[in-house]
Design goal:
Radius of gyration of chain A: 22 Å
Structural class of chain B: mainly alpha
Shape of chain A: elongated
Largest interface: A-B, 65 and 56 residues
Number of domains of chain A: 2
Largest sheet of chain A: 6 strands, parallel
CATH superfamily of the largest domain in chain A: MTH777-like
Number of helices of chain A: 11
Strand content of chain B: under 5%
CATH topology of the largest domain in chain A: Rossmann fold
Strand order of the largest sheet of chain A: 3-2-1-4-5-6
Order of helices and strands of chain A: HHHEHEHEHHEHEHEHH
CATH architecture of the largest domain in chain A: 3-Layer(aba) Sandwich
Largest sheet of chain B: none
Radius of gyration of chain B: 27 Å
Number of strands of chain A: 6
Number of helices of chain B: 7
Distance between the termini of chain A: 18 Å
Helix content of chain B: over 70%
Oligomer: heterodimer
Shape of chain B: extended
Distance between the termini of chain B: 18 Å
Structural class of chain A: alpha/beta
Helix content of chain A: 40-55%
């Protein structure tokens, strides 16, 4: 029996994982119910960093991720855009990842166009697009934005974009919001933008689960707010919904909270698999069959 | 000469960037060097594309193992490049409605947008999702409490796995307020903020010192391995 379990076809494990993710997605989709979330201090700090700014402040939103990590980062990106729009902040979008502009456009179409029709392109938000060069881009735009961004993604010269008036570099921004899936991302923004100009540039970020432990050393001086993975997104979504959502927020603003369901069941399955694997291991060792 | 010029370029650019960081008057020189870097980085896309074609076409031509995958890679590369450069399906932009190709290559409804939306997006998301299945399999087969270090790692993993979900809140909600630090969600935060931060900082400082010494060796021409020598 032990031998049989030890040589279990891994497709059974794959099937269990599939069910652990699929069933909660179905149930939450059907009932619309989500697990309660208590926002952590870091999620509150992220929320406050945006909310405490006066209405109409300038926010640079750097979307440094791709569709592969959309499952983890998409909900927080949406929530960031929504909070900025609710606060009537001016949003300057850019990306250091080649497919970032598409994700920026997706969020513009998801949040700004349907829910904030008074927002006007060029006056309230602008998409500056992608530039290659990784941290090299950050190093240039901290002192001279127009060197690398002479035009927006549509090719309109920045001099003709009203909200670019008086913006010489990103030191003119009141806050940088970075959504990061790896390199280049939050670490590079902290090292090349915040660290050389600590009194002028502030940043909050959302990142993937594997990145979060590497960013904790920058908290709180260089990075006052950080959302780690879907859990961070769910906590932040709760804060945004509590402040701006009303009693029945649109389901598109609940994606982080909804995705916590599959995460819960998948994590429990992982723990059970680890316990089962170790039980077999110790039983085998006791019988002297372990190598 | 083939070795001397790259050595000088490296030394001058590196020293310039270091000096520009500390002397404000030289800041604009540092900016110029960084812009050059960005131009080179953009050119690297062309080199990268050329290299990709060369490697995979050779594999297809020699009928090496897995040549069919290379053929798919080349086909995907050529189709995406053509569709983007030729702006297939692009509508005129609002600024220049009289010019057929004035719209953006990736605006909604274009062929490039279609490729991104219905090929690139689901494929990359699928690849990333597969991780969940392999991690589950590894959890069953490889994550063993063989010694004290592995047992500590296992214990930490349990706390973090539970603490990052509602299960953590549910399992330890009975704890009184005086012991709230032992609640799983709070323990998770403590693990991330204290042991994790301490370890990561130590690694970062070590890495930074290593980078500084390696960079100095490169700038002074002591380490020339990047030129292809030992």
């Amino acid at each position: 029996m032990i031998e049989k379990l030890n040589n279990l076809d891994r497709r059974w494990i794959f099937l269990l994982m599939f069910l652990a993710v699929a069933v909660p997605i179905y149930v939450i989709g059907k009932t619309g119910k989500t697990f309660p979330e208590t926002p952590s201090a870091l999620a509150k700090a992220t929320f406050d960093a945006i909310d405490d700014l006066p209405d109409g402040s300038r926010i640079l939103l750097a979307f440094d991720f791709d569709p592969a990590s959309e499952g983890e980062l998409g909900p927080m990106a949406t929530a960031f855009v929504r909070q900025c729009a609710e606060k009537k902040h001016k949003m300057y979008f850019l990306a250091l990842w080649p497919v970032g502009p598409q994700l920026i456009q997706a969020n513009i179409e998801k949040v700004i166009l349907p829910d904030f029709p008074s927002y006007e392109y060029g006056r309230d938000y602008v998409n500056l697009g992608f530039k290659s060069g990784n941290e090299g881009v950050i190093k240039v735009i901290v002192t001279d934005l127009a060197q690398l961004y002479p035009a927006d993604i549509k090719g309109t010269p920045v001099e003709k974009i009203p909200m670019m008036d008086g913006i010489r570099n990103i030191q003119a921004m009141d806050l940088i919001v970075n959504v990061s899936a790896g390199y280049p991302g939050t670490k590079e923004w902290v090292q090349y933008a915040v660290t050389p100009y600590p009194d002028k540039i502030r940043i909050v970020a959302g990142c993937t689960g594997v990145q979060a432990p590497l960013l904790y050393p920058y908290i709180p001086q260089q990075l006052p707010g950080l959302l780690g993975a879907i859990k961070g997104a769910a906590e932040y979504e709760k804060l945004v919904n509590d402040r701006y959502g009303g009693p029945h927020p649109d389901p598109k603003y609940l994606e982080g909270l909804r995705r916590m369901g599959p995460q819960l069941v998948a994590h429990i399955l992982m723990i059970l698999l680890i316990i089962a694997g170790n039980t077999l291991f110790f039983l085998q060792r006791r019988r002297g069959t372990s190598r | 000469m083939k070795r001397l010029i790259p050595l000088w370029i490296t030394a001058v650019s590196g020293i310039l960037l270091i000096v520009a960081y500390f002397i404000p008057a030289w800041e604009s020189w540092g900016e110029k060097a960084t812009i050059w870097f960005d131009v080179l980085a953009a050119s690297a896309f062309v080199l990268g594309g050329g290299n990709l074609l060369k490697l995979h076409l050779r594999k297809v031509s020699n009928r090496q193992a897995g040549w069919a995958y290379s053929a798919v890679t080349v086909a995907a590369f050529v189709v995406t490049l053509t569709v983007g450069l030729a702006k297939i399906g692009v509508h005129p932009s609002d600024n220049n409605p009289d010019f057929a190709w004035s719209g953006s290559y990736n605006s909604s409804g274009t062929a490039f947008w279609w490729l991104y939306e219905y090929a690139f997006k689901p494929l990359t998301a699928t690849m990333f999702s597969l991780l969940a299945f392999y991690v589950a399999s590894a959890a069953f087969r490889a994550f063993r409490a063989k010694n004290i270090e592995a047992t500590l790692l296992l214990g930490t993993a349990f706390i973090v796995l539970l603490g990052r979900t509602f299960a953590g809140v549910f399992l330890t909600q009975w704890l009184p307020e005086s012991l709230s630090g032992l609640k799983l969600e709070n323990l998770t935060v403590w693990i991330m903020q204290v042991p994790n931060t301490a370890g990561t900082r130590a690694i970062m400082i070590g890495v930074a010192l290593g980078i500084a010494s390696t960079s100095l060796k490169v700038l002074l021409g002591v380490d020339r391995s990047y030129l292809g020598s030992d």
